[in-house]
Specification:
InterPro entries: ComEC_N. Keywords: Membrane, Transmembrane, Transmembrane helix. 64% of the residues lie in helices and 12% in strands. The protein is an alpha+beta fold. It folds into 2 domains: 78 residues, OB fold (Dihydrolipoamide Acetyltransferase, E2P) (Beta Barrel), CATH 2.40.50; 177 residues, no CATH class. The strands form 2 sheets. A 5-stranded mixed β-barrel has the order 1-2-3-5-4. A hairpin with a 3-residue loop joins strand 1 and strand 2. The longest helix is centred in the C-terminal third of the chain and has 24 residues.
Length: 340
Amino acid sequence: MIRNYIYNQILLLNHNTYWVLEINDKGYTIINSFNIKFFLINNNNIEKLKIFEKINLEGIIRNNVFTEITKLRIMNNWDPRYYIFNFMTNWDKIYKNFIFPILYGVNINYENQIFKNASNSGIIHLLIISGLHFQILFLFLQKVFKKKLIWITYSILFLYWLMCFKTVSVNRAFITVFVKFILSKWVKDKKTQFLFIFGFTILITGNLDILKPGYWLSFVLYLIVSSSDNNVNWKSIFINYFVFWCISTSIQLFWKNEIYVISWCVSIFVTPLFEFLFLMANIFVIFPPILKFLYFTCEFILTIISNNSIVIYNIWWIQVFFSLISVLLFFVHFLKKNRK
């Protein structure tokens, strides 16, 4: 009831207000206050818009596409991302083509070959769409700044979240990290912490967002990562990673229409490399030459994998099989941990 009231107030305050999220040759992908995407076809009657431009737009919508425009007005924009992203885009194209989509989820063009190959191999779903990149950055910052400087870790993570496009998985990952930090002061039992976080995030998440695969994929991956924090044995780390990969792959294949067999198999070995490249991109975000090297490295690896893969079309029995494998591995993994 309270959530619905808040949503209605947001809708009233931002009626006909949209933000530009993606730009391509055909037009603009825009979002409203609830991150619902619409497409604005590019034609001579539309003034050139920029990333995170705030606009007041009225017109006729069919299938989330503005087919006719009756009013378009550029509004005052106080979002710092608008100025940062457009400054960086004018500085070097690498930010528009690679850094903004990978690090912040902005202006992702799946027609771009590197993102098409990353999607086919499942890496982009595993690292970005699931929100796992948020968890990886947090664990890395924890190791760098230790407990005495933990406030720096949370400050950087908060700034990173502000820069990101607020997907359901990114928001869930962000809320989980901060709620867990607050709970740890009063609740020591990890199972109780998880139940509280699980219930809290569902209550504040929109009904449609809860049904999205990215939300549940990020939850499952968070469970495995958080349960593996204390493992120092290489054998345990390897087993946890294998279970992690199998479960995430099974979940993704349930929603896939095409399976790139070799790409998915090889991803178990190259995913750690892409995790490392993601961290390097964050560290050297203001150094275009290094970012270009990272871009070409990713492109080279993904091209080799995609060009040597076998494609099979997903059918119902494959989806059922992988779903059962995912559920079985999940419960066996955590039942074994509880017995220990």
